[in-house]
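Re-running the complex after MR caught last week's input typo. The corrected sequence lines follow. Everything else is unchanged.
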Amino acid sequence: MRVNEKCVGCGQCTAFCKQDAIVVKGNAYITDKCTNCGICAFYCPLKAIEAEK
Amino acid sequence: MKINVIGAGLGGLLSAASLAIEGHEIEVFERLPITGGRFTNIEYHGFSLSTGALHMIPHGSTGPLGNLLKKIGADVEIVPCEPMAMIRIPANGSNNYKSGFKDISFNQFGSQFSMWNRLKLAILLVTTRRWPPKNISFENWIRKYLNEDSAHKTANSFCGWALSLTNRDVPAEEAFEIFENLYRYGGTGIPMGGCKGVTDALVEIIRSNGGKIHTNTEVSRIIVENNTARGVIADGNKHYSDVVISNIGHPFTRDLYDSYTINNAYEEKIDNVKSSAGIKTCLAADEPLIGHNGILLTPYCRRVNGINEVTNTDPNLAPPGKHLVMAHQSVRQEKIDKLEEEIEIGLQDLKEVFPNKKYEVILTQSYYDGWPVNRASSGSDIGNTTPINSLYVVGDGAKGKGGIEVEGVALGVMNTLDIIKQQHR
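Corrected-run output:
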């Protein structure tokens, strides 16, 4: 998954990530633990997470 | 009547629940998989953090939100904060907390002023309640009448906590309306179950009265005919209705319809809506850091405005034996591109506020622009109507005057319900 410029850092994604793969500090950062399951994107209020192209 | 609601945040749910119990046919459309918007819980490492708000209701069970919840029979218990707020002031007249501090009650505010300013404050409190000042910021009002550093700092920490604004950005008139409401309605409370306790109760009312809530369903258009809202298009399907209520703020609502006649005054108002930004830092602790359920205002921090510890009221918001502590700091618009630095300064502040205490940072959450603290900062609200008939806006982008955060949301919803009653008999 990839975080785009719409992210504000609200942290909603990290709470729903089952892999604990998102670090949030002013912005969300996807770590190596990400399995591309895509759950985070559903919960993002700003459409700020997209599947990697 | 058939009523469509766009967005299942607090304003949308309050409107939908109120109208559902009156027998109207309600459909709520929510883009996310969860209801509650920025007023619900997210579970994180065993703690019930929140999507936005700080598990508090500014005027407790007797304020606009508390009264509206009671009126519609929402099953929510709101526990009063006692004390409502304490102010942490440095020891020995210092300018920071490094060499010690003491906490004074919010009601004793002013006790640290000179004799003359204490007298003046008492007179000002009475006169400004009766004759609210106009066209002056809260900051300039304090400078003019009460030029005392601690007054500036306390006003800033209060405005930062309650509105996520600095006193420079709050009109004095709005600040005094808020103080007036503190007298009128009383102080803060904590909803049992946190924010989710409130929004889940509203969902329950909507469903048990036959209303429908569609999650994972995005509204792509508002159907407008003859300058009147006729329904919404969601996931490609048309849903007709007599009234459309939008909970997504004026600017996003405006983007959802085509208008053949441009209302310049409204467009200009939309452009002038300012959202407010903030950072919430969630801490976990084994021992209480604050020890009471009220707000700890921290005027002498560089960034942090105030902190609460809601587990003193509802221990279930944290794992057994743990405490959840939430600190809020407002963020000025020009600092938004330096958020990580702002978060760091806030974390340093917390070390000074809680010296020799053990705690862990669970999560830092920031809010601005499209997902802000308030879609319309206090004083920049533009009401609940739109140039389109039968289309109304509720939520924190359309609050009532003097309403802090969710209290303003409730005032705006009540106003909208009144308008709908008058317009659609």
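None of the earlier attempt is carried over here. The first strand of chain B starts at residue 2 and ends at 6. Chain B touches chain A through 25 residues (CB under 8 Å).
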